């Protein structure tokens, strides 16, 4: 009888050890500590519904790509994305009552994502608005924006935006040295050659010009990521054919006219979802 009991107890001990080893540890099942930084492309400004926890001035949506990623990975999300953010708003308050974005990043943060740089010095937004005004002045003919501004936009991105990106990414890395940090490029706003003057008021000859400015911006983001050991999420291939000139249900970015979002030339819900998908693929999340 005692021998039988000993065998049963030994078997139970082995089985118990097997079950215990198969169960995930508390650390393994704790949610990923995820902080989302960045500008309106990260905040999904204009996409409904708005995030009720966000400052109204930030125009943040609950359907932005950070929320999509957090929902898919069950991460613990701290979202401080804010429309119109520049790299300087990482260290300083963007608006009264809106804390510097870096305040959200802690030493135990495990994942940080962002889009940033497009608003620095208003360079890229000025390129879009000025090229739009120039296109309207010629009713879509010629290349009035390129003729007037030449290399000024790309020069500013290379000389001002790029070093600002390096500083911002370095600051993020310093705040959370153990975190996986990723910065997304910007999805295509215009096709490579043929525009759509009825929806995007860019002159025919300025379509490749403005696309070239966005290429320079994304290259600055990519180079800054490489210089600081940050993961670059390249959207150039996956967003091809999903620019603002495409039909509803195909485009990821809304046009100036005939669009569905009150915040024009920004990603719609589909675009944010696809940005999340690409980010998860690159980072191996899912």
Structure in words:
- With 286 residues, this protein is an alpha/beta fold.
- 42% of the residues lie in helices and 7% in strands.
- The protein has 9 helices and 5 strands.
- The protein has helices spanning 2-22, 26-29, 40-43, 65-73, 123-137, 144-149, 152-175, 207-228, 269-283, and strands spanning 33-36, 76-79, 111-114, 180-184, 231-233.
- It has a 5-stranded parallel sheet with strand order 2-1-3-4-5, sandwiched between helices.
- Strand 4, helix 8 (207-228) and strand 5 form a beta-alpha-beta unit.
- Helix 7 packs parallel to helix 8 (207-228).
- The protein is globular.
- The N and C termini lie far apart (52 Å).
- 45% of the residues are buried.
Which percent range fits the helix content? 40-55%
Task: Provide a count of the helices.
Answer: 9
Task: Output the structural class.
Answer: alpha/beta
**Number of DSSP strands?**
5
- Please summarize the sheet with the most strands: 5 strands, parallel
Q: Name the quaternary structure.
A: single chain
Instruction: Compute the separation of the termini in Å.
Output: 52 Å
How much strand? 5-15%
Key features?
286 residues, alpha/beta, 5-stranded parallel β-sheet, disordered N terminus
Topology record:
Layout lengths: L1 H21 L3 H4 L3 E4 L3 H4 L21 H9 L2 E4 L31 E4 L8 H15 L6 H6 L2 H24 L4 E5 L22 H22 L2 E3 L35 H15 L3
Parallel strand pairs: 1-2, 1-3, 3-4, 4-5
Helix pairs in contact: 4-9, 5-8, 7-8
